[in-house]
Amino acid sequence: MKQIDITRVHTRLDRRQLLAGTAAAVIAAPAIVRADTGPLKVGVLLPRSGFEAGIGQDCRRGVEIAPAIFKSLGLPELAIIDGDTESSVETARARAAKMISDGAQLLVGAFDSGQTLAIAQVAEQNGVPLVINIAAAPEITDQGYKFIFRNFPTAGMILSDAFDNQKQVFGLVGAVPKTVVFMHVNDTFGTAMSKGINFLMPKFNMPYSIADEIPYDPAAHDLSVEVAKAKASNPDALLLVSRLNDAMLITRELVKQRWTPQAILSMGPGWYEDQYFKTLGKLAEGPMTFAPWYDPNKKLSRTLEAALAKTYPGVNLNTNHVFTFEALLVAADAYKRAGTTDPKALADALRSTNITDNVSIGPGIQFNAKGQNDKVKNGAIQNRGDKTVVIAPQAAANAKPVWPLQPYQSRG
Amino acid sequence: MPFDVYLNVAVGGILTGLVYGLMALGLSVIFGVVRVVNFAHGEMMSIAMFLAVVCFSTFHLDPLIMLVPIAAVLFAFGYVLQSSLINPFITRPEHSQFLLLVALAIIIVNVLLIVFGPDARSVQTAYALDSFQFGPLIVDATKLYAGIDAIVVAALLFAFFRFTSIGKAIRACADNYTGALVVGLNVNRLYALAFGIGAACVGAAGVMMTLIVDVTPLIGPTYTLLAFVIVITGGLGSMLGALVGGVLIGLTEALAGLLFTPSAKSMFAFGILVLVLLFRPQGLLGKRAA
Predict the structure, then answer these.
(1) How far apart are the CA of A271 and the nearest CA of chain B, in angstroms?
(2) Are B241 and B20 in contact (CB under 8 A)?
(3) Which residue in A251, A294, A351, B224 has a CA-CA distance of 20 to 30 Å to A27?
(4) Distance from A387 to chain B by nearest Cα, in Å?
(5) Position A5 pLDDT exceeds 50
(6) Are A243 and A216 in contact (CB under 8 A)?
(7) Does B28 map to a domain?
(8) Closest-CA residue of chain B to A52
(9) How far apart are CA A272 and CA A395, in angstroms?
(10) What are the pLDDT digits (tens) for B161-199?
(11) Is residue B288 very low, low, confident or very high in pLDDT (cuts 50, 70, 90)?
C-alpha cells in the first residue's frame, strides 16, 4: 500500500497557499454538494393538510404514479422529498427554505397561488429551480424571476380559453345564458380570476352580463347566505371560481333552496373532483368546468389513466394529477438533458424544454422568456355519471354537452 | 331584492343564531358560577361534533338521537375536568387560568388532528338536503331541527336552575360564594356540576351544529371566539343574554352577508361587539358591576 509522507506535504505548502486552498474549498463546497450525481432531489410542496388538504393529497397521486411511467419513457430517476404547506402561505415559505437547506435541488408545487408565490421567492433567492404544477396568479411569472417555470396557464389564459370554450359550448347546445351571478373565493387565485374576468369579458363580447358578484371565504362552513343572494338575482347560470369544500356547500344549498340554474359554469377546481362525485352522487351530475385539463386522445394521457386506475381504482384522472405529473416530467426531462444536478444548468435546461409527448391539452410544453408555458390550453368538461367528459375544444372532445341542468328536485 | 329573500335569510340566521346561543349559554353558565373563562369552549364543542360524526359514520346513529348521550359524555368530561384540573386554579391569578385553558384548547385541537386528520367531515342524514316551504318562505330542515332543539335544551336548562334544588344551590354559589359555604353547600361539587352543565350545553350545540356545517379539528378556535363575542354582547354571566346575543349575531351575520358582502359578514358581528363595549359594557342583558 502506498504511504503518504505528510512531512513532505507540509514542506511544500506554505500558510498562504493553505489559506487560499481552504477558502476556495469553502466557496466551492455548496456547488459541489449541489452538483452531485445520482437521482435529482425534488422537493414536492403541496397543501396536504388544512382546508386544501383534499386537493393537495389528490395532487400527490400524480407524484406516485410518475416513476414507472418515467422509466418506460427512458427518463432518469427522481428522489422525491415531500413537504406539506398546511394550506398556509407562511408554512409554504418556511418548508421551501427547509427543503433547500436539506438538499433539494429542484422544487415542484404548490397548487395554491399565494403559497406558490411565497415558494417562488425562496427558490429565486436560493437559485434553485421551481417547476410550478398548479397556480394561476399572473404575478408569479411576471416578476423577472430566472428560476421559476410554470406549466400551467395564468388566470388570464384560463379566462381567455374559458370564454372561447364557453362560446363553443353555447353554439353546440344552441342556448345562451343572458345573465350570470359570479361567485368566487376571495383568496389570491379567486381575486386574480375576478380581476381577469372583469377585464377580459368586454373584449370577448360574451353573450351574458354579470348580474351580481359574490366573493366569499374559501374556508367558510356555511354558504346559505351567498347562495340566497345569488338566487335573488334570478340569473340564468352561475359562474364560479371555487375550491372543493365550497363547491359541495354551494351544491347542497342549491338543493335546499330549491333552485337549479340552467347551468353551472366553473372556472376553477372543485366541481370535477372525485370527492365531489362521491359525496354528492346524483347531485354531482351536470356542472361544466372550463379549466386546464388533459387531452383524452393523447397517448400519454391513456398511459397516465391506466397507471392511475391500477394504483387508485375508482379515481378519475384530473387536473391535479395531470399537472403535478407534468411538472415532474418537465423536471426529469431537464435533468436528463442537463446531465447534472447543478441548479443553474438545470434552469438552462428547463428554459430549452420542448416536450410534445405530453398529457395536457395543447401542442406541448415550452417555456417563454418569463418561464411560462404559453402554449398550454384549457378544456371544457362536464360531469356525467361518476366521471367527466371533454366537450370542448373539438380536437380534444370525447362527448357532446348536455344543457340545461336537470332540476335537483327531480333527481331522486 | 324581493322581500322573501330577506325573510328566508333572516329565518336561517335566527335558527343558526339559536344554536350559537346554546353554545354561548354553556360559556355563560361556567363563567357565571365558577368565575373561570373557558378558553377551550369551542374546542370542547368540536369534540362533540366529532363524536356525532363518528356515531353517524360508524353506527349510522342520527345526531338528533345522539344529542342526549353526547351531551352526557361532555357533561362527564366537564365534571372531571373541573374537579381534577381546573379546581386547583380557582383561587390562582386569572393569567394562570387563562394559560391552563388555552393549553387545554391547543391539546384538544392537536389530538383531534392526530386522530381524525385535517379533512372536513360531515353528517349526511336522510334529511340533510330537505327543506320546508311555507308560501314564499323556504326553511332548511336541518337548521329548523337544530333551532328547535336549541330552544328545548335552553328551556330545560332555565327550568333546572329555577325549579330544582341543585339548580338553586348552584345559583346560590354563583351569587354568594361565602354564604354558600356558611350554609353547608359542597361548593367544589357544585362547581364541577356547573362546569359539567356548561360542557353539556356546548356538547348539545356541537351535535346540532354538525347538521349545519362540516367539522374540522381547526374549527374550535373560531367557535371559542364566536362564543366570547356572543356572551359579551348578551352580557357575561346572563343566561338569557347568551341566547339573545346568539340570535343577534346569527341574524346580523346573515343580513350583513345579504346586504353588503358575504365575505365581510363576521366584520359586522365584531362591529356590534365594539358598539356594545362602548355604550353598554355590561352587555345587553348583563348587570352593571357594583
Answers:
(1) 16
(2) no
(3) A351
(4) 22
(5) no
(6) no
(7) yes
(8) B119
(9) 21
(10) 999 999 999 999 988 888 998 999 999 999 999 999 999
(11) low
Distance CA A102, CA A139 (A): 28
Residue B65 is part of which domain span? 3-116+141-279
Which are the contacts of A187, defined by CB distance < 8 A and separation ≥ 6?
A112, A113, A114, A218
- B131 contacts in A (CB within 8 Å)? 256-258
A185: enclosing H helix or E strand: strand A179-185
Give the Cβ contact number of residue A113 at 10 Å: 26
Instruction: Mutate one of A216, A221, A278 to test the B interface: name it (highest B CB count within 10 A).
Output: A221
Cα radius of gyration rounded to whole Å, chain A: 24
Q: Where are the domains of chain A?
A: 40-154+297-377, 156-294+379-410
Whether complex ipTM tops 0.90: no
Cβ-contact A307, A326 below 8 angstroms? no
Structural domain total, chain B: 1
Other CB atoms within 10 A of residue A299 CB: 11
Q: Is residue B155 part of a domain?
A: yes
Determine, for residues A256 and B140 on separate chains, whether the beta-carbon distance falls below 8 Å. yes
What is the spatial distance between Cα B259 and Cα B8, in angstroms, rounded to a whole number?
13
Asked whether the beta carbons of residue A225 and residue B124 sit closer than 8 angstroms, the reply is: no
pLDDT tens per residue across span B250-287: 999 999 988 887 777 888 889 999 999 999 999 998 87
A contact residues 198-217, partner B, Cβ 8 Å cutoff: 214-217
Chain B (141-200) residues lying within 8 Å, Cβ to Cβ, of chain A? 141
Q: With contacts defined as CB-CB under 8 Å, which chain B residues touch A235? A: none
- Is it true that A40-154+297-377 and A156-294+379-410 share their CATH fold? yes
pLDDT of residue B4: 87
A252 and chain B: CB distance < 8 Å anywhere? yes
Q: Does 3.40.50.2300 match the CATH number of domain A156-294+379-410?
A: yes
> CB–CB of B262 and A232 under 8 A?
no
B16 neighbourhood in chain A, CB within 8 Å: 222
Tell me what pLDDT residue B203 has. Answer: 97
Q: How close A225 gets to chain B, by Cα (Å)?
A: 6
pLDDT score of B132 more than 50: yes
For the cut 80, the answer to whether the pLDDT of residue A322 exceeds it is yes
- A40-154+297-377 maps to CATH 3.40.50.2300: yes
Look at A49 and B133 and tell me if their CB atoms are within 8 Å: no
- For residue A27, give the C-alpha cell: 466557496
B-chain CB neighbours of A91 within 8 Å are none
Contact B221, B108 (CB under 8 A): no
On chain A, the residues whose CB falls within 8 A of the CB of B147 are none
- Residue window 180-199, chain A: list those with CB within 8 Å of chain B: 186
Q: How confident is the model at residue B289 (pLDDT cuts 50, 70, 90)?
A: low
Task: Report the length, in residues, of chain B.
Answer: 290
B14 touches chain A (CB under 8 A): no
| pLDDT, tens digit (0-9, with 9 covering 90-100), for A18-46 | 455 555 444 444 444 444 568 999 999 99
> Does position A198 have pLDDT exceeding 80, yes or no?
yes
The answer to whether B63 contacts chain A (CB < 8 Å) is: no
Position A8 confidence tier, pLDDT thresholds 50, 70, 90 = very low
Largest CA distance in chain B: 62
B13 contacts in A (CB within 8 Å)? 225
First to last CA, chain B: 48
Domain CATH number, residue B64: 1.10.3470
Q: Is A221 on the interface with B (CB under 8 A)?
A: yes
Regarding predicted confidence, which is higher, A212 or A7?
A: A212
> Taking CA atoms, what residue in B is nearest to A212?
B261
- Cα torsion A168, A169, A172, A175 to 10°: value is -120
